[in-house]
Write a structure and sequence with these properties.
The chain is of the alpha/beta class. It has 9 helices and 8 strands.
C-alpha cells in the first residue's frame, strides 16, 4: 500500500523517479469546455504519474477551487499535483509542489516560499537558462520544447533531442522533456537519459484520454528503460 500523499517524501530521488515518467499539464483552457477534471481522471486511469495545474485566466477564487478539486481527484491515484507559477496556491490547495518558468519567481524565492518539503520544478529551454537552476533548490527540470508546438505561445523554438542531450550532459537533476511529444515523436528521445515526458494536447485534446495515456505509458517504458 502506498503511503498517504501528505506523508510521502516527494523530493526523494526514489519518489521523483516514480512520479516523473508520464507528466500531464492540464487546466480548463487545455480541454474541451467543462471536461478538464474528467480528462485528468481518465489520464490517471491510463497511467499518468504526475499532474501540473496550469491556469492563466481564472480569478483567484476559481483557481483555488479548481486546484483543490484536482488534488482531491488525484489523491485516490496517489498522484501528486503541482501548481504552475502560483506559489501562493500550493499550500492552500493541498498540492505537493510547484513548477516555475524563467519569468516567474527565482528558484531561491520559490524554495524559500514553499519550504523544504514541496516539489519544485523549473522550465529550461537552453543551456543559458539552465544556469538559473540550483540542484539544491530545484527537484527536476522541464526541458524543451523538444519539438515544435503551438500549445504555448511563449514556448520558444524547439531545441530537439540534441538540445535536450546537451542539458542532460551538464546535470544529474532529473529531467522531463516537454513540447510536441506524441507516440510518433517520443522514439527520437530514446537513449538520452530522460526521466520522463510532459504532455498537454496529446492527452487533453484526445477523444479518448485514457487510451492516449495508456499508449504513451507503453512508449515511456522504453524511454526510461
Amino acid at each position: 500500500m502506498h503511503p498517504p500523499l501528505q506523508d510521502k517524501d516527494w523530493r526523494s530521488r526514489a519518489a521523483l523517479v516514480e512520479i516523473l515518467p508520464l507528466y500531464l499539464v492540464i487546466g480548463p483552457g487545455n480541454c474541451p469546455e467543462g471536461t478538464w477534471l474528467g480528462v485528468a481522471r481518465q489520464a490517471m486511469e491510463g497511467g499518468v504519474t504526475c499532474l501540473q495545474y496550469r491556469d492563466k485566466t481564472s480569478d483567484p477564487a476559481r483557481f483555488l477551487a479548481n486546484a483543490r478539486a484536482l488534488v482531491a481527484t488525484a489523491a485516490p491515484f496517489n498522484v501528486p499535483v503541482l501548481i504552475n507559477d502560483r506559489l501562493d496556491m500550493v499550500a492552500l490547495s493541498g498540492a505537493q509542489g510547484a513548477h516555475i518558468g524563467q519569468d516567474d519567481a527565482t528558484p531561491k524565492q520559490a524554495r524559500d516560499f514553499l519550504g523544504e518539503k514541496a516539489i519544485l520544478g523549473l522550465s529550461v529551454g537552453s543551456l543559458e537558462e539552465f544556469e538559473t537552476h540550483d540542484p539544491r533548490l530545484v527537484d527536476y527540470l522541464g526541458v524543451g520544447p523538444a519539438f515544435s508546438t503551438t500549445t504555448k505561445a511563449d514556448s520558444g523554438d524547439a531545441i530537439g533531442p540534441e538540445g535536450i542531450s546537451a542539458i542532460l550532459e551538464c546535470t544529474t537533476t532529473p529531467v522531463v522533456a516537454i513540447g510536441g511529444i506524441t507516440t510518433d515523436s517520443i522514439p527520437y528521445l530514446y537513449g538520452l537519459g530522460l526521466n520522463g515526458v510532459a504532455l498537454i494536447t496529446f492527452i487533453t485534446r484526445n477523444r479518448d484520454p485514457k487510451r492516449a495515456s495508456l499508449d504513451m505509458a507503453a512508449k515511456v517504458k522504453m524511454l526510461t528503460a
